[in-house]
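Subject: complex prediction, re-run

Hi both,

The earlier run crashed halfway through, so I resubmitted it with identical inputs.
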Amino acid sequence: MSVVTNTTTIGAIEAPSRRNTELALLAFAVVIPVFAYLNVGLAIDGKVPAGMLGYGLGLTLLAGVAHLVVRKWAPYADPLLLPLATLLNGMGLVLIWRLDQSPRLIAKSIRDFGSFSPDAPKQMLYSAVGIAMFVGVLLLLKDHRVLQRYTYISMMAALVLLLLPLVPGLGADVFGAKIWIHIGGFSIQPGEFAKLVLAIFFSGYLMVKRDALALASRRFMGLYLPRGRDLGPIITIWAVSLLILVFENDLGTSLLFFGMFVIMLYVATERTSWIVMGLLMAVAGAVSVASFAGHVQARVDAWSDPFACAEKVAACDQMTQVLMSFGSGGILGAGLGQGSSDLIGFAANSDFIFATVGEELGLTGVMVFLLFYGLIIERGVRTALAARDPFGKLLAMGMSGAFALQIFVVAGGVMGLIPLTGMTMPFLAYGGSSVIANWALIGILIRISDTARRPAPAPAPNPDAEMTQVVRP
Amino acid sequence: MNKPLRRVAIFCGLLVLALLLRDNWIQFVRADELNAHPKNTRVRIERYANPRGNIIVDGKPITSSVDSGGNYYKYKRTYVNGPMWAPVTGYASQVYDANQIEKIEDGILTGNDDRLFFDRTLSMFTGEKKKGGDVVTTLSGAAQKAAFEGLGDKTGAVVAIEPKTGKILALASTPSYDPSTIAGSDDEKAWVSLNESKSKPMQNRALREIYPPGSVFKVVTAAAALENGKVTDINAPTDTPEGWKIPLSNREMVNHAHGCANTSLIHALEISCNSVFAKLGDDVGRDKMVEMAEKFGFNAEQFTPVRSSASVFDKNSDRGGNALSSIGQFNTATTPLQMAMVTAAIANDGKLMKPYMIDQLRAPNLDVIKQNEPEELSRPVSPETAQKLQQMMESVVTKGTGGNADLNMDGVKVGGKTGTAQHGEKNAKRPYAWFISYAKTSEGSPVAVAVVVEDSAGTDREDITGGGLAAPIAKAVMKAVIKTRG
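This time it finished cleanly. Structure:
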């Protein structure tokens, strides 16, 4: 006969923390990029690359610190998120380093800018800052619900971040998109951070107003329309951010924000009518933007028939090179370091880094990377499902949704599924803001998942427990 | 909130699924199409990523590859004696593709050919760099040199064939160009000037230009007359009046030579009587003339394996046209290769061998991948007819207009035929000087040559004759071949 010691209905069985699983996965996440690094070195120079030890130790150190912090301060966190992000970040470093070795890109840089400086060391630094950001989030944010307090501050911060690139002297117009600011020697893309801050605002506001939005509505043509005072602020913020982004020529981010907004509204209110309205608004927005923005038309042209477009416009040549990169990769790829994805030229290591994956790792490699991203999204959604508080649910869902949309918009654009919008593949592409912001995103998700998976607090001692105890013979 | 969350999760899954499907579409379904796209520079980058194999003459390469240090195309093609060999090698340019042997045997030269699969696999394991195979030609350096230097700064072409086998020994075309000058990636200026040059240096005159053959075509007419029994005794009078009237016209056939009236076939060839051969062509008839010309290879492209233009003998001409065609005027037009084939067939006792210039293809480790064997193309004339034609052509050299080609070597007989082809509106342009000839020893004929000199600036119009301009070049080529074989 078994002895039942727990008689409460709420399970207080100690949930496994899965920290050792995470450690084992992290070992893979470090070893695979290190081998990839070795592979590139052997393919290009025929010898073991000199930086291999430094790279391996650096990556191990970063992963180790992140793991220890999670072990100590978020012991019940999802075990997959950190290894996936580490692996992608590590592979991104290898791919950027591989493109640094390209004599064609070096020559092009010297021709265009008079000098060449490798991007991989800078990316290593950004990755370190990114991990520091991750650690900072876990240390400072003991409970994600604290963020609810900053709902309106987040709103202001998002607007300021989005407006910064338009400030004269601070903003910079880089290849047509005004999405950068220069401070000292650094350039920052505030949009990447605005993504996080806006998700916090949406979560905080929707959590409070979701009942009003869902219930206090009038029926109009089969759709539930909420009252203006409930929806007004959120529509305003969303519209302002879209307008700013349209002026900054950053269509990918506009799409991302809009998608995130619709998803969170739908999740908060549980009303399908939001999807319908969202789609209608998206169509209206797309048509109006396309009608007055010439560069949108150009992007659509480049997408519908890049080869025909390349005959007329030199810029379309980039898209044809990307497609030929993918084609040349075939099923198994040319092998790391042995492709010609550097023919893409400018932005080969940022916007188009996925083409290098396609050419050198082939269909197989691209599918693996897409599944890795898919796993991150899946773990994010799981976190949202498991979260016990509506704010955490909304925040986790908003961030995972934004992440999914970003993957779709970037990879879809690079592979010619949708028009190119010029965003970067999270963790893989070169760029400080992107790496840092995405590490912060992973940090917040880990914090929410830790709270969600943490065993429920032991129920208060029941005074009747003693009396109902089974007396055994 | 969990129900919408699950739906959104499915939506996110669909986004990833769409990406996976799209990726399969471009990397699996469309991969071949994208790889074969003309804008895809990867093919050219690959072509020059490793040293190309070489084209070999007399055991020595006439091409090589140098490391140009370029960011796109690592190795660059260079040529030894480029202008002299250009009609054989063609060019391989980093930007402007390639042609002739460089293009036709590109698979062997780059090492990508399927027949080199084992070499590639082997070198992958031994860690050797990928190398291309070699193309060994049938050409003779001495004959080519004699031909090229003989042409000098004149415009023209020379083709020399070994009659027994059909091996091409010389293939010269002037003015020529150096393929090295357009091999690199920044040779646009040279490329444009070569293409726009009025002297058309990139034209392969030996294979791709068709000229009116003039009197050298008379050997074909003679062959047709003998084969069809219109003439049985080459020393008998041919019953041709001086002033033979061209059928369906009021004009008479003009003879530049004196003493053509009623002369014998052998003498008519010696002094090149137009009237005799025009009448013979008329006697034989158009259809039989076409048949004979086609047996020699007219009206068809030849693949050596570099493609030649098709020579023309008009299948639809009327009687008058046929008579004019029979002396190599009117619509008759031929490549120098074609006339060399005619000469070779006669020298080889009536058997025409398929002309070819690639002897073997070799793997980088010198294993022979493919050995070309001589191949019979046709038998245009019987051995008896061939003997008679030889007798007549030898008489052209000993007694007639071809004296300049006589080698004066013991045991070597030379047969030839001169030609001075008129062309242009009302013959206004400067005539082409032709010469075809063969040398013969007791062991058969080692060489048959056709020479055409298109325009020879500095020579008086009256002095442009096949015997004067073209025969010395043919003689030099024959001498070079006999010396190297002797």
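The mean pLDDT of chain B is 85.

- K.
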